[in-house]
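Below is how a single chain appears once it has passed through the pipeline. First comes the sequence as given, then the structure the pipeline wrote out for it. We keep one example in the README because the format questions we get most often are answered faster by looking than by reading.
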Amino acid sequence: MKPHARRITTRASAATAMAFAVVLSSTTADAQPPTSDSDAMERYEELGAQAAMADEDLLEAQANLKDKQGEKAAAEADLAAATAAYEQAQGAEGQFRGHVDKFAAAALQGAPLSRMSVVLTSDSSSDLLDRMSALELLAADKANALGQLSDAKDTASQAQASATEARQRAQQATAAAQQLVDQVEQRQTKLEDQIQQVRNALDDLAPAQRTELGTVQDTGSYLGPPGAANDALQAALSRRGSEYEWGATGPSEFDCSGLTSWAYRQAGISIPRTSRQQYQAGKQVGLNELQPGDLLFYDDGTGNPGAIHHVGMFVGSGKMVDAPTEGQLVDVRSMEGDGHLIGARRMVG
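Resulting structure:
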């Protein structure tokens, strides 16, 4: 989602930009030193695209890690609640079992708990009625105790099953989160290496090229139909001249999707953070149906949404406002980018 080292469609480099395709491969673009200004620009753009892909991969891994950490926390909370419920149910089971055990002990000791024994041992009709009433109360108490014991045992069993399931989920989420921590660290290391290559390539550019890249080229006004999309567009345009920064979301520095998500947030619309996630949001629109405020997405030329690494915002007249890569400013440029425009999405309306 990051920058996207699009063929820098600044005035002087537009022709060069359209002449080369960004090659995203495992081979490094700095295998050969540049032999001309155009070679240096091509190398810079190619490395920027590769770094953008690595940055998008990193953000994706970080988002996945955050989700897994949330799952882990939820599972641990469920485990704590289930464990407490199980312990409470065990306590209730023990209490009701004590009542039942008293009745069992009385029966073993020959206690007069039958109707016949009451009749045979009563001294008078009044005594008989009293004993019969007491017997009914005891029978009800016994049935109630047995029922409560059964319910407590069922509750304890269910709570134990819930605790076991929650414990398994917590263990699985913990393991998955740890794997993602390792993945994030690996991708962070890869990104840092590629960013350094971009910086080296930027240093190899001619002074005039670096000056052009670091200067706003388009100060024109662009308007869309009234509404949130135009509000987002104007917010993005207001950031022209802001520097590119890996992973930045504003308000003074941006990466590519950091700019688009920030701009829509100013319009009161929440959209996903990364360019790949933004490609799944809103609704798809054809390139012949574009309206100002629509988002444009760029991949590595394979047509694979999983390889998207750059996003810009359509302003009209075949142009977009975007944050390209390190060394460049937020500005309005040709929407052709590096020629790998995979599609467009409309966030509102």
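Confidence is low (pLDDT under 50) at residues 1-31.

See the next section for the split statistics.
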